[in-house]
Amino acid sequence: MTSPITTARHGDILVVTSDNPPVNALGAAVRTGIDAALKEAAGDDSIHAVVITCAGKTFFAGADITEFSKPPVEPLLPTLVDSIEGLDKPVIAAIHGTALGGGCEVALACHYRIAVPSAKLGVPEVKLGLLPGAGGTQRLPRVAGVALALEMTAKGDPISASQAHEAGLVDRLAGEASLLDDALAFAAEVAAARPLPRASEKTATADAQVFADFRKTNARRFRGFDAPEANIACVEKATQVPFGQGLQFERESFMKLMFGVQSAAQRHIFFSERKASKIDGIASDIALRPIKRVGVIGAGTMGGGISMNFLSAGIPVTIVEMQQEALDRGTATVRKNYEASAAKGRITPDQVEQAMGALNPTLSLEDLADCDLIIEAVYENMDVKKELFGKLDKIAKPHAILASNTSYLNVDEIAASTSRPQDVLGMHFFSPANVMKLLEVVRGAKTADDVLATVMALGKTIRKVAVVSGVCHGFIGNRMLMPRQVEAMKLLMAGATPEQIDKVHVAFGMPMGPFQMSDLAGVDIGWHRDPTRIENIRDALAAEKRWGQKTQAGFYDYDEKRNPSPSPRVAEIIEEFRVREGAQQHDITDEEIVERTLYPMVNEGALILEEGMAQRASDIDVVWIYGYGWPVYRGGPMFWADTEGLKKIVAGLEKHGFEVAKLLRDKAEKGERFN
Ligand code: 3HC
After folding, report:
1. Which of 85, 125, 236, 273 is catalytic?
2. Ligand 1: which atom is nearest the Cα of residue 278?
3. Complex prediction ipTM
C-alpha cells in the first residue's frame, strides 16, 4: 500500500505532504509516514528545515475518529507530536482549510505556523465528548494564552487564521494561492534560528479567578456535559504544573472521557449526522435537479423562517401571502431577524441587504411559475393543502419540486391532488425554521428518487441536517413525541405534578419537559375551541384561556418576564379530574417518570423502524438531537436505549402495561443493540 505521506526536497528544505482524503485525518498510515519523514530529516545533514503541509481540501482535520474504537497502533499521536517538537531543525506547519483537533496539535508542536487567510484552526474534541489529547491542552494556553485556550478547548469552535495570527497561534499569513512558496521562504528565513521556539518550553499564566469566572459564565451551556470541565481542568493544570506533568494529567483525563458513555454518544452522533444524508437504494451520484429559485407560500413565522434559510445560502425566494398586510408583516420580520444578526456581528449590513434584495414578496401564486422548488407553509388542514397543491399543479413549471411543510399530514394524499405525485414530498422544518438544524424530508410512495436526492442535498446547502422519513402520522419526531405527551398526562392523573415531570426531563438533559413544552407551543394547539366541551385537563386549561406563555398562564403561571411558577389553579383542575375519573393515585418516583415517558418513545422508535419509516436507528437519534434538543451526550433515544440495555427497557414497558414492539423485543432477546 502506498503511503499517504510523500517527501520532496526543495533545496535544503524537506517538504512533507499528506494526501489522505477526504480530510487528511491522522490515521496510522499518516502518522507512520510523518514519523519516517522526521527520521529522514534528522538523519540528513543537508536538510535544514522541514515544512509539513497537506494536499486536497484541508490540513489535518484531526485524529482519525474511526480508529477510536479499535486497538491503538504505534506511533501514537502524542508521541508523534513530541517527535515533531523535539526535532532539532525548524519544522513549519503550512495550513489551509481546517487544522482541527489532532491537526491543530500537530501545528502547535511545529516550531512555526503559517496559514492562508481562509484557514480555520480549532480543537473541537469537546464536541466529541473529548479533549485535545495530544498535548493540545498544554501547548495551546502556552502559545495562544489561557483565555483563548479556554474558549477554544471548552467550546470547540474554530477561529479564523487572522484571529489565530493576532493571538500568536499563527506566526505568519500566507497568500491564498502561494502557501507552499511562502512556507518555503519562511523556512529559509528561520533555518538557522536557534533556540527553536518550542511550545512546551513556554509558560502559561493566569489568575485562578479566570477559571472560576469562565466556569460560572458558561455553567448553563455546559450543563450535563463531562468534557467541557475536563478541558477547563487541563488548561488550568497547564498554569500550575510543569509541562510533563500537565501532559500526564491530560492523558489520564483523555482516557477517562474516551471510555465514558458521553463520548461514545457524541461520536455516534458525529457519524450518524453524516450517515443521515445517505439514502438507501439511491446512488450517491444521481443527477440532481437544479434549484435556482425557491417559492414559499405563507409569510408567517414558519414561512419567513424557511425563506431565510435559502436567502442566507444565496438562493432567491419568492414569498406569497394572501393579504398585503400579512405579506408586509412577514417581510418586515425577516428583515428584523437579519438586522438582529447584523447587530450581533454575525453578518454584515451588506449581507442583510443582499438577502433582502433576493426576496420577492408577492400576493400572486402565479408568480411561482419560475420556481424550481415550491414549499407550502400554510394552515395545517388537509383540505386547504389539497386545494393549494391542485392550484400549484397548474402553475408550477414542469419538473419543479412541490413540497409541503406539514408536521403530521399524509403527504401521499396531498400528492394525489396533483397530476405529478413524483414531484411531491414533505419538507418538515422545525420552529424557528431559520435556527433549528433539523429537516425531516418526507418521502411519499411516488416521490421520484432524484426529487428526494435533490432535497436532501439542498438540506446540506442550507446547513440543515436532513433526515428521510416515510409517510406516517407525525413522521419520526412528532410521532415519538405523542406517546410521551399522552403518558405525561396520565402521570398527572396518577399523582404526579407538572413540575415534577418537567424536572425529571430537565435533569435528564432535555431543554424542557412536556408541560413546559406545551406552554411554549400553546396549550390551545389542536383544541376544538368549544369552552363548554371539557373532556380532559387540557380542555379545562384551554377553556380558561390558560393557553401557555402567550397568555401568561398554562400548566404554569407566568410573570411579565415569563418566569414560571407552579399554579394552584392547575393543581385544582388536576384534582377535579382525578376525583371525576376516580383515578388511583400513588407516590410517583423519578424512575417511574423515566420509564413511563421515555421508554414508550423508544418503543415508538422501534415501531417506526419496523415499519420502515426511518432508514436506520441512528436517523431517529439525529431527529431527536437536532429537532427536540435531546441531550447529545446521551446520543439520541435509540442510542440511549442501547446504553440502558434493551432488556431493561422491555421489562420497564411490560411493568407499566405497554405493548412492546416486536423489533424491540426481538433485539432484547438476542442481546442486540439498535446502533
Ligand atoms: N476522522 C475520521 N473521519 C473523518 C474525520 C475524522 N477526524 N473528520 C471527517 N471525517 C469523515 C466524515 O465522516 C465524512 O465521511 P463520509 O464521507 O464517509 O461521510 C468525511 O470525512 C467528510 O466529512 P464532512 O462531511 O464532515 O466534510 P465537511 O467538508 O463538511 O467538513 C470537517 C470537514 C470540518 C473537517 C468536518 O469533517 C469535521 O469537523 N471533522 C471532525 C473534526 C474533529 O472533530 N477533529 C478532532 C478529532 S478528535 C482528535 O483529534 C483527538 C486528538 O486530540 C487526540
Report:
1. 125
2. 19
3. 0.97
